[in-house]
From TrEMBL:
InterPro entries reported for this sequence: DAPIN, DEATH-like_dom_sf, NACHT_NTPase, NLRP_HD2, NLRP_innate_immun_reg, NOD1/2_WH, P-loop_NTPase
Residue ranges of every copy of the NACHT domain listed in the record: 157-289
Keyword tags: ATP-binding, Leucine-rich repeat, Nucleotide-binding, Repeat
Protein name per its UniProtKB record: Uncharacterized protein
Keyword Transmembrane helix tagged: no
GO molecular function, one term: ATP binding
């Protein structure tokens, strides 16, 4: 855009930004200001009736372009619109730059646009045309603008976007880059935005910040030194921070002090994040919530944000678009919505795609979803079955079964060696040949880890966990090519003791595969009947765990509960749970409630129960109770239903000691129906005013037999 064009219309554009009352004040102050400066005032009658465009012309004609502009800049702060002066000074930096600078900037923007459009289409099999596109929504746009609006004057900005794995962080950053490259975002804020992906950075043994920037610039007509001379106009985006395992605790002496200094990729990044190089630049980091640990304390006043990419409405929209047929889509959606586990899964786009793919195919084959897709294990099994069964066949070919076996072997090795990205050697060791990788990519089980190189990962960590669980049904760990792979008993202990943070669903999948209704599908998929042999062994391990002394120290109850929930065997659950005397578990997300409700039903000998509600999940206390109307209960949210089920289980059990450390008193009501409950601990519980009222009313209830309240 020509600079002269901008200056001709500049005053009018700025006056356009004023609200009606601000524009009136501007006119009043214009009169005073011209008098004070000894300038000849414009007749008030003309000023009074002038619209914004007219006033801009009157001022420019009477005083000349620059003096008219200076007058306006002096008036804006007086009407509390200093932001317009700030905007003007930012723009003047932009327009005063030499033509070479502007053309280099434009070339860079064009390069970014091309690069990110290419990246977008590379990994887009989950995308639904016309459903989610490359444009930022209005809300996304507003929050991104807000992130870099000064909160603390003169402090450089560091924003951290946290979100779970595969939730769509990179996708969001791609949209940001595209919006910036076409001039709709941060136009006045940043001349350059550099996107650094830790996945790629990890592969660089030696580099410098200069090197990282140069990799991205197609034209070097402007020396790099000129670009970094204005660091406040640069934004660095760092994606997948957790990949680099950058602890940000490296000794200061090892960090770079200059953007040209060479170090490992990790050290250069650490120097940038710890503000040793280009400290005035802005930073936007995307990372998983807890990785690296205590990130917040290691950065300079970071603005921590949670990225919510795929919400309930998106899940619904995704179902509608991917099914095509609205009736079927809505049937499948309401089926999923009533299943806490599947619905939670669907908030990760990739898993939502997987759920839709499985449900759609099961529905097309006329199968009952309640029988084929009711738990996470069954959905994964459906997906696998469909992926490996050729069109028109009823079961996988022998060759397919061989590949599946190799895939499961790879997954098991990955779990034990904490590997999520596999190179050619690991693939070959586990029996996956060069010709198999395109098949696995086609089946959407694998994805290429980075554009360059030949490393692969499962499409989602859950998929790796599922395949690892299947390995134990397929093969004997002693025969695995890697000695790291341990026997089943060790796996279960490791899982239930939560010794490995990255093992989230492994144990659940293992037990889920034992479910009666999976057996036949599993036999057909694997071409053998090992699951029946394994069942007693697995259940025996669970029994040992349930009977150990001091269980709280030894196992994570909730994981144990989840495993039982996946098996869904009443006989087994009651056998294991009926002797359980203590249970201690946190409730973090909505599915935890369903699982706890299922298991507590069988805990008839429970003596002590500790339930803590942690995390940001909002407890629906408001639905359950309103002061002055204790009898009315609304069951709006699905979670309310589970709370009521838990309450009703607690009503019947002989629990005497109930140690609650909830953030709210959602279970208080049980004290009004079960006199066996005699002890309540609420240390570190913070009750709202309403909840205190509720507790008082519970305590005065004749059925309440509380003897001890801590
Ligand atoms: N709105 C969406 N609609 C459809 N698919 C999506 C959407 N958002 C993300 N995806 C898909 O989900 C997958 C993961 O997305 P993305 O790589 O952006 O997530 P991430 O959080 O950056 O992952 P990671 O944790 O591996 O860094 C990709 O295959 C992407 O195409």
């Amino acid at each position: 855009m020509a600079a002269s064009f901008i200056s001709d219309f500049r005053l009018m554009w700025y006056l356009d930004e004023l609200k009606k009352n601000e524009f009136l004040q501007f006119k009043q102050l214009l009169k005073q200001e011209t008098v004070q400066r000894g300038l000849q005032p414009i007749p008030w009658a003309q000023v009074k009736k002038a619209k914004r465009q007219d006033l801009a012309s009157l001022m420019t004609q009477r005083y000349g372009e620059q003096p008219a502009w200076d007058l306006a800049l002096c008036i804006f702060p007086k009407i509390h619109r200093k932001d317009l002066c700030d905007k003007a000074s930012r723009e003047s930096v932009l327009t005063s730059r030499p033509a070479a600078f502007l053309s280099s900037e434009n070339a860079y923007r064009a390069h970014i646009q091309e690069k990110f459009i290419r990246m977008w289409s590379r990994d887009s099999f989950t995308e639904i045309p016309g459903c989610f596109d490359q444009t930022l929504t209005r809300e996304e746009h507003e929050s991104l603008e807000e992130y870099f609006t000064p909160r603390v004057p003169r402090r450089p900005h560091t924003v951290v976007l946290r979100a779970l794995q595969r939730v769509g962080k990179t996708r969001f950053l791609m949209k940001l880059m595209l919006a910036w490259s076409d001039g709709t975002l941060y136009r006045d804020k940043f001349s350059f935005i550099f996107y650094l992906c830790c996945r790629e950075l990890k592969q660089l043994r030696v580099t410098s910040l200069a090197g990282l920037i140069s990799r991205e610039r197609p034209d070097d007509s402007v020396p790099l030194a000129d670009i970094v001379a204005q660091p406040e106009r640069i934004l660095f985006i760092v994606d997948s921070l957790e990949e680099l395992e950058c602890t940000l605790t490296e000794p200061e002496s090892e960090l770079c002090r200059d953007w040209r200094e060479e170090r490992s990729g990790k050290m250069v990044l650490s120097s940038l994040l710890r503000r040793k190089i280009l400290p005035e630049s802005a930073l936007l980091l995307a990372a998983m919530p807890m990785r690296p640990e205590a990130l917040e304390s290691k950065l300079d006043h970071p603005n921590m944000q949670e990225l919510k990419c795929f919400q309930d409405s998106h899940v619904k929209q995704y179902f509608c678009c991917s099914f095509g047929d609205r009736g079927r889509a809505m049937a499948a959606f309401s089926w999923v919505q009533n299943n806490e586990h599947l619905f939670t899964m669907c908030h990760i786009p990739l898993l939502c795609w997987m759920v839709c793919t499985s449900l759609k195919q099961e529905m097309e084959r006329g199968r009952d979803l309640a029988a084929t897709c009711c738990r996470s294990t069954s959905v994964f099994l459906s997906f696998m079955f469909q992926a490996f069964t050729p069109k028109g066949a009823t079961r996988p070919s022998q060759q397919g079964q061989g590949l599946l076996k190799a895939l499961c072997s790879l997954a098991a090795e990955g779990m034990w060696t904490d590997t999520w990205v596999f190179g050619e050697e690991e693939l070959r060791r586990n029996g996956i040949g060069d010709t198999d990788t395109p098949t696995l990519l086609d089946l959407r089980l694998f994805r290429k880890y980075s554009e360059s190189g030949s490393s692969y990962s499962f499409i989602h960590a859950c998929m790796q966990e599922f395949c690892a669980a299947m390995f134990y049904l397929l093969d004997s760990p002693q025969d695995h090519p890697s000695r790291a792979v341990m026997p089943l008993e060790v796996l279960l202990l490791t899982y239930f003791r939560k010794e490995r943070a990255s093992w989230v669903f492994l144990g659940c999948f293992l037990f889920g595969l034992l479910h009666e209704s999976e057996q036949q599908r599993l036999d057909a998929l694997l071409g053998m009947q090992r699951s029946r042999e394994l069942a007693p062994q697995l259940l025996g391990c669970l029994r040992i765990l349930a009977e150990i002394e001091d269980p709280e120290e030894q196992v994570e109850f909730l994981l144990f509960f989840y495993a039982l929930f996946e098996v869904q065997s009443d006989a087994f659950a009651s056998h294991l749970m009926s002797s359980l005397r203590e249970a201690h578990f946190p409730l973090r997300e909505r599915p935890d409630l369903a699982v706890a409700a299922y298991c507590l039903k069988y805990c008839c000998s429970l003596r002590e129960l500790t339930v803590s509600a942690i995390g940001s999940w909002k407890w629906p206390m408001g639905h359950l109770w309103r002061r002055g109307d204790h009898s009315r209960h609304s069951r709006g949210a699905a979670g309310d239903g589970w709370i009521r089920i838990i309450q009703s289980h607690l009503c019947f059990c002989r629990t005497r000691k109930v140690s609650f450390s909830c953030e709210t008193g959602i279970f208080f009501e049980v004290f009004t129906s079960n006199p066996n409950l005699q002890h309540l601990s609420m240390t570190s519980t913070q009750l709202s005013h309403d909840e205190v009222w509720f507790l008082c009313s519970v305590l005065s209830n004749p059925v309440c037999n509380l003897q001890e309240l801590l």
